[in-house]
Design goal:
de novo design (two linked rop proteins), about 0% strand, 23S_rRNA-intervening_sequence
């Protein structure tokens, strides 16, 4: 890797740390880099979250003609940026404007990097992934491209995020552990939907669901200790997340999945494989996103609730298509729509509250 590129990436990581990884704080920094021709440099960073990936891609596309790829060694703007990398962000020629003064003056907090393979949370996550993969070998073939892929992906994400969290920056560990916690809750949701369709037994569900709960507890305990000790003086989120199984919209979304699977198994749908696939995907996606929204950062909570809303809207459109084709009755449609609306109303209220939290 070009040394100049590496140093720009390191400078950006410092800004992320100072802003406590708030996507709202660093968005204008990404835009600033794009306008000056260097946002492409961040695409190789492995530590960036999904929201950052989306923003980087957005600004890269918007300012693609601005990007400078050649002669980095002699580029005067880039050189001056690197020379001032050690200065506070407000003095850097990259001019990362959104970082507030009080955050700039906070002491950079660091953690001791440990061998992740010796961390009990990582061991539990690896065990969970192995058992999920073994379990999925007995799923119906028509679920390979849907539930199987999704549950294996979410289980793998827990382990991968824990591994990425084992680094020196406190804020990044919080960020990666938050992703791992969300993935654990999503994995539990896919397990619960699999149980509802009788793809797994109650005993199998209880064993793996208990394993995901153990991972969440271990990560939460670690984050709580870090917040009280190494993270003092930093604006870190509360590491404790609510139990999604006590959330009414989540349980109603599970009922919605049951109804969609029940209806799409009827003979009227046998010739509508593509419609069946899409309807099931939208319904299950709503559940998975509600579950994954139960994590640490406000911006992530909002985004996952919003994705659940989009899935519900997509399902509504597919239901109307089914009605037009005459493969679903008005009565069946009414029951599902009422359930969908009840979920949507709860999510709307929750998102309004989250927006209030951000504003305050």
């Amino acid at each position: 890797m070009n040394e100049k590129v590496r140093q720009i990436q390191q400078e950006y990581q410092k800004v992320r740390e100072l802003s406590n990884y708030s996507i709202f704080d660093i968005e204008s920094s990404l835009k600033d880099l794009a306008e000056k021709g260097f946002v492409w440099i961040l695409k190789d960073l492995k530590e960036i979250c999904e929201a950052e990936e989306i923003l980087i891609e957005h600004y890269l596309n918007k300012f693609r003609s601005y990007q400078i790829y050649d002669n980095l060694e002699v580029n005067p703007y880039l050189q001056s940026s690197i020379e001032t990398a050690a200065k506070p962000p407000s003095q850097s020629s990259l001019d990362f404007a959104p970082v507030q003064k009080e955050k700039q003056t906070k002491k950079q907090q660091h953690l001791e990097v440990r061998d992740v393979k010796r961390f009990i949370g990582y061991k539990k996550a690896r065990e969970l992934e192995k058992k999920v993969i073994e379990l999925c070998q007995n799923f119906p073939s028509y679920e390979v491209d849907h539930i199987v892929n999704q549950i294996e992906r979410s289980a793998r994400s827990i382990k991968d995020s824990i591994e990425m969290g084992e680094q020196v920056y406190v804020g990044e560990r919080f960020n990666q552990y938050s992703i791992a916690i969300g993935s654990a809750k999503e994995t539990s949701a896919w397990l619960q939907m699999s149980l509802g369709q009788k793809y797994i037994t109650q005993v199998q569900f209880d064993e793996l669901d208990n394993l995901t709960t153990q991972v969440v507890r271990i990560l939460t305990k670690n984050l709580s200790n870090i917040k009280e000790k190494e993270g003092k003086g930093m604006d870190l989120p509360n590491p404790f997340t609510p139990n999604v199984k006590n959330f009414g919209a989540y349980n109603n979304a599970l009922l919605l999945v049951e109804k969609i699977y029940e209806i799409t198994r009827k003979p009227e749908f046998w010739k509508e494989k593509n419609l069946v696939r899409k309807m099931r995907k939208r319904a299950t996606s709503s559940v998975a996103n509600i579950a994954e929204a139960h994590q640490l950062y406000i911006s992530k909570k909002f985004r996952f609730f919003n994705d659940s809303m989009k899935a519900l809207d997509g399902l509504d459109s597919l239901l109307e298509t089914s009605l037009i084709k005459g493969i679903i009755s008005e009565k069946e449609l009414k029951e599902i729509v009422e359930l969908r609306i009840s979920i949507r109303n709860v999510l709307s209220t929750k998102m309004a509250n989250i927006s209030g939290e951000k504003a305050s």
